[in-house]
UniProtKB/TrEMBL annotation:
This is Large ribosomal subunit protein uL18. CDD domains: Ribosomal_L18_L5e. GO terms for cellular component: cytosolic large ribosomal subunit. Belongs to the universal ribosomal protein uL18 family. Keywords: Ribonucleoprotein, Ribosomal protein, RNA-binding, rRNA-binding. InterPro entries: Ribosomal_L18 (IPR057268), Ribosomal_uL18_bac-type (IPR004389), Ribosomal_uL18_bac/plant/anim (IPR005484). It holds the Pfam family Ribosomal_L18p. One of its GO terms (biological process) is translation. It comes from the Bacteria. Gene3D superfamilies: 3.30.420.100. GO terms for molecular function: 5S rRNA binding; structural constituent of ribosome. The lineage of its organism: Bacteria, Pseudomonadati, Pseudomonadota, Alphaproteobacteria, Rhodobacterales. Part of the 50S ribosomal subunit; part of the 5S rRNA/L5/L18/L25 subcomplex. Contacts the 5S and 23S rRNAs. Transmembrane segments: none annotated.
Length: 119
C-alpha cells in the first residue's frame, strides 16, 4: 500500500491506540473524531465496551453548528468535561486517533482539562 494520506492516518491511529492499550490501567478513553465540519468525542470504557458520555458539535443545544471549528471544539470539550463529572469520571486517557494534536483537537483537549478532566 502506498503512503497515501489515508494510509498514514491509519498508521498514526493504530500507533496511538496500541500505546494506550499498553499503558491502560483501568482508565477510560476519551476518543476524538474530527471531520472537516464537525468534531465529536466519546468517553469509552474499553473493559465493558460501553460509552459513558458523548458530545458533538452537531448537538443543537450547544449552539455551535456552523461556527469556527476551534471555537466549536472548545465548547464540545467543556461539555464533555461536565458530562464526565456527572458520570463520576475524573481521569482518562486522551485518544486523538490519527488526528494531529493541533487546531481543533488541541482546543478540545485544553477545554476538557479546564473543565476538570485529567489526562
Amino acid at each position: 500500500m502506498a503512503n497515501s494520506k489515508r494510509h498514514l492516518f491509519l498508521k498514526r491511529r493504530l500507533r496511538v491506540r496500541n500505546k494506550l492499550r499498553k499503558m491502560n490501567a483501568g482508565r477510560l478513553r476519551l476518543s476524538v473524531h474530527r471531520s472537516n465540519k464537525n468534531i465529536s468525542v466519546q468517553l469509552i470504557d474499553d473493559v465493558q465496551g460501553t460509552t459513558l458520555a458523548a458530545a458533538s458539535s452537531l448537538e443543537k443545544e450547544l449552539g455551535v453548528i456552523g461556527k469556527n471549528n476551534v471555537e466549536a471544539a472548545a465548547k464540545v470539550g467543556s461539555v464533555i468535561a461536565e458530562r464526565a463529572k456527572k458520570a463520576g469520571v475524573e481521569e482518562c486517557y486522551f485518544d486523538r486517533g490519527g488526528f494531529l494534536f493541533h487546531g481543533s483537537v488541541k482546543a478540545l483537549a485544553d477545554a476538557a482539562r479546564e473543565g476538570g478532566l485529567k489526562f
